[in-house]
Amino acid sequence: MKFRILFEYRLTKICLVLALFLMGYSGLIYGQSNFKGQHSTSVLTKENNNLQITRNQLLINNNWEFNIGKGESFTRINLPHTWNSNDNSKDGKEYYRGVAKYKKDIELNQDQLNNKKIFLYFEGVNQVATLFVNGNSIGKHIGGYSTFAFDISKSVKAGANTIDLEVTNESDDNIAPLSMDFTFYGGIYRDAFLIVTNSIHFDVLNNGSNGVLISTPNVTEKMGGLNIRTRLLNETNKNRKLILVHRIISSNGKLVETITKNVVLSANSGVNEISLAGKVNTPELWSPDSPKMYTVVSEIKDLETGSVVDQVVNPLGFRWFSMDPQRGFFLNGKHLKLTGVSKHQDFEGLGSAVSNELLIKDLEMMKAMGANCYRSSHYPQDPEVLNACDRLGILVLDEIPLVNSITESEAFSGNCHQVLTEMITRDYNHPSIYSWGLSNEICILAKGRIGSERGNDYDNYLKKIISSLNAKAKSLDPFRFTTQSMHYKTDRYESSGVNKIGDYIGANLYLGWYFGVPDSLIVSAKKMQILSGNKPLMISEYGAGADPRLRADNPRRFDFSLEYQTQVHKAWLKSILNNDFVAGSFVWNFADFSSPYRGDTNPFINNKGIVSYGRIPKDAFYFYEAVLAKKPVINIGMKNWKYHSGIGNSPGSASKKIVIYANTDEAELSINGNSLGQKKVNDYSAEWDVPFRNGKNLIEVSGIASNGEIVKDYHTIDFNLIPSDLHQMKTGDVIRVNAGSSLYFLDEEEKAVWMPDREFTKGSYGFIGGKFLVNQNDRIEYREGVADNIKETVKDPLFQTQRIGVKGFKADVSSGQYEITFCLADLSIKSKSSVYELGKEDDVNKANVSGTTEFDIMINGQNIAENLNPKKIKGELTAYEFSTIIYTESGLNIDFIAKNGMVGINGIKIRKIK
């Protein structure tokens, strides 16, 4: 199987148009548009001393009005915009999925309308958009992740023009996706443009493309052949004689080839498609290491005057690739292990309304980490994402939002085919794209049992849709791969036969997270490959959750600690790199993302990212950078924590393990200017037991790269030292105990760390009696606490865990006054499993939950609280804190006296006041 491909840029931003146009014409003029309140750059040409506007693309993001629901009042907003940037993570509330209205006034003068065509162009509106201009119905677009345009020429007039766009993100059984582990943000969440062309122009309405599609059926190191298909329109009432010109410009601005053809376009003849062939000798090849780009400047010229009537610009990247079931992926004839990430488009605090700058920074961060491929999960993403991948050299799997299940209707099938057509047409010219994705885990919510009448009907319809989508993709683009991403439970893919559709398979495998052990990843991948007809294989998802606020001394599966996530990623990446039949892999996920139906330690967030929702790297990111980056790397793993805590194990200090990630042979670590010596870097990491003193501590690490370059990293940690002998506690010292948990919890509100639960030891502190509240089921052998959202707090990990059946708590403190805070929550609701936890389906929750509890609290014989019942005070799954102040001369002895059920304590904090 071998593909040779050449691609283009989609419709580019006007600044790129101007820059490239300048290469070919000395008469370029920058003009200011007459559209009010917006900045516009116009492309003009100078021919026979006459100026003509060829095309004007105006960004119209500012000064929209927005109205949600049934209200009458509008508020002023700018694009990109979503109405779900905040409500997708509210306690106990469903995020809004409904109708909203957008409105904008645009003023045009008569000169801008004479013999011109006017279009509105939207890069993304979720998920149904209905357009009216000056009260006239223009049309409707269905699908939340595609780019589309409307011709509004017949509805605009000189003077003020009102644009009304009705948008809904309501659930619709005939629109994909039907369901998924991410938020279906509503709104005009990408850029919007007004495009003005002459009446003779390239096709603006071609599914988001600019009317020029470029392919390269034959590419070698000696010759790059290309075919350019162009869609032209003459919307005048006269036949026109024209010249179609394609100029090929190299990465250094040199004109390397010109392809021309004289054409006659009949009056009002609709779309005219013209194909022209050309070649570039000894082309500069595009690759992740050397993403050499060409540019195709396409122009329509008037044959008599030579003036340019319309112009568009597209990218060009010469390369070819192939994939082998046993040897993996090859680019330009050379083996290349694909190692990359998947990513959703949202960002903390912004939802899906993310600026181009932030989207590009994500990709630059991936590239700096060493990633060479990217999966646009689970939908086509912003055009600027693909532009950046072209420029940076990142290969892309571009996929449609067909996820989890289907609706057995012609309307649903038609929508899937339309979305696929829009994706391939818009993105066709990007050299970064090597594959089209047809679906993701499409059998995870299949209807009916295998072999039943209902199951057979569903399977047959599913196979029909996927087969038709594959055929459609091949008809639109015979030069790229097609694939599906399938979850590990393959029986339904086999019964329906969809596992045999596509050029290679994507395996979503979470061995070592939801179930199994990391070492079985490759065994499962090979099994899926064999069952799918021994096709080439990529691991399209693998990952583990990690709450940036949780760390573990002894990490275990499903504890959401940063340490466990790094531990399993180490094992997974080693297996992937050592097995050639695995053509490549995508980490799930690059960044944490919104998931409104998840509990976990950070509710409403899928935290499998190797960077946080706000793009702060986790330890696993630093590990990948050490392995994959081709630059010298050294990083301190603890860098995302500015605070820590520990019990002293020597006079004036407490020892903590610090891990560094590096690709140097050795590294040296110092703490507060004192060297702890050099260590060999094994498996891209090294660790030291570091003595921390109370207060600020400066960690420094350095290493020498193979090229002789010295690389360093620094980090300061504010350490809360708990003395081993509590009689040494000073005024202001604090002990925080994360009850029922073996994890350290970073409290971002208090800028401090809660210590793991511990039993009492003389001279120190700890609980007496009781055990950890745990969930045990067939997927998770041992999980501390519950996975539910805890209301009225952002400290969910603290309140999700609990020590139950506890009798008391002791702290052998010196005499003085102490503030004692109790953290409580009723956890009697059993956590529900999620379909996205890709483990066994016969889960039985066996949580040893205490149920309704009433108890008294006594401190040093003094009754502090009677008949305390968190459920009656606050309700289920709701945080409750209260504090008391005690003076003691003989330590703190806290007794918990159960009245009904078992006592459950979520946290205790002791602060010495004086």
Question: SSE layout and pairings?
Answer:
Blueprint: E1 2-7, H1 14-24, E2 29-32, E3 40-47, E4 50-59, E5 64-68, E6 75-77, E7 99-108, E8 116-122, E9 125-126, E10 128-133, E11 136-142, E12 148-151, E13 159-168, E14 187-188, E15 192-198, E16 200-202, E17 212-215, E18 223-234, E19 240-249, E20 255-265, E21 271-281, E22 294-302, E23 308-324, E24 328-331, E25 334-335, E26 338-342, H2 356-369, E27 373-376, H3 383-392, E28 395-399, H4 410-427, E29 433-440, H5 453-476, E30 481-487, H6 491-496, E31 504-508, H7 521-531, E32 537-542, E33 550-552, H8 562-577, E34 582-587, E35 593-594, E36 605-606, H9 619-628, E37 634-636, E38 643-647, E39 654-662, E40 666-671, E41 674-680, E42 685-692, E43 695-704, E44 710-722, E45 734-738, E46 743-747, E47 752-756, E48 765-768, E49 771-772, E50 774-775, E51 783-784, H10 796-800, E52 803-804, E53 808-811, E54 816-824, E55 854-859, E56 862-868, H11 870-874, E57 880-888, E58 892-900, E59 904-905, E60 907-912
Parallel strand pairs: 26-27, 26-34, 27-28, 28-29, 29-30, 30-31, 31-32, 32-34, 38-44, 45-47
Antiparallel strand pairs: 1-23, 2-3, 3-4, 4-15, 5-6, 5-7, 7-13, 8-12, 8-15, 9-14, 10-11, 10-13, 16-18, 17-18, 18-21, 19-20, 19-22, 22-23, 23-24, 24-25, 33-46, 35-36, 37-39, 39-42, 40-41, 40-43, 43-44, 45-60, 46-47, 48-53, 49-52, 50-51, 52-59, 53-58, 54-57, 54-60, 55-56, 55-58
Helix pairs in contact: 2-3, 4-5, 8-9
